[in-house]
Amino acid sequence: xxxxxxxxxxxxxxxxxxxxxxxxxxxxxxxxxxxxxxxxxxxxxxxxxxxxxxxxxxxxxxxxxxxxxxxxxxxxxxxxxxxxxxxxxxxxxxxxxxxxxxxxxxxxxxxxxxxxxxxxxxxxxxxxxxxxxxxxxxxxxxxxxxxxxxxxxxxxxxxxxxxxxxxxxxxxxxxxxxxxxxxxxxxxxxxxxxxxxxxxxxxxxxxxxxxxxxxxxxxxxxxxxxxxxxxxxxxxxxxxxxxxxxxxxxxxxxxxxxxxxxxxxxxxxxxxxxxxxxxxxxxxxxxxxxxxxxxxxxxxxxxxxxxxxxxxxx
Length: 314
Description:
The chain is α/β, with parallel strands linked by helices. The protein is built from nine helices and nine strands. It has helices at 13-24, 47-57, 72-82, 101-106, 170-176, 194-204, 228-246, 264-273, 277-302, and strands at residues 2-9, 33-40, 62-66, 87-92, 95-97, 116-123, 155-156, 166-169, 209-219. Strands 1, 2, 3, 4, 5, 6, 7, 8 and 9 form a nine-stranded mixed sheet that branches. Helix 7 crosses helix 9. The chain is globular.
């Protein structure tokens, strides 16, 4: 088995070097074949210089590709197409991986029972959330910061893993296609879920994905993300991506507006009346979520009747 680690990057040269150095320090068995494929998605900062410096420190381990078509899904699909491994692992340019990450994430894919695997994503130990933000529980929004922690017990996943810590057999992309290019962040748009949509697509076809809690990455949280404005924008774009992924559920009485809008009024009241700051802000995000759904439905109705773009080619 050969593993290709795919890392797509765009204008994050500050964190990129740490990410690459961390994966270069991976501890694997001597016979373990692996490479790291860096896909530069048209960066305009010092990304190439950073990559060259890391490559000199770790000769023979990395390959570099330049993908001029803007959009993370475009870069991901290029990485999938150009990878030489029969198992593809994914990480982002703003994480650091633990030394045993790669081996622990991909070990289960040596057999024939599992199609993919997802690991644990932890925030940096020094991270301290603001008073209005709950990471877990009823009002938890840790997933927006890429927190993915299902505990210490390994087992089958009932939800898709996050893209910064997942691995799939290459044959999965050949069978089910690549990442949808109408999803995924790009300059001017933070509509995401390209990774979880792929996982849901695979799981809905009956494929099984393993949770590997010992495969750990640490995700840095920039201060710019710890603002209410960022979270509200995320939920608005999440509403849009949900419509793109699943489509609107027509309702004759509401002229095609999703059923969730019917519950927007009581949620708005809870937002206005809640005293707990975490509950209050959580309820506010529900309104932005519905707003994103409405905007995307309207946008689709104003565009041509052609169906949205499906999976990109791997």
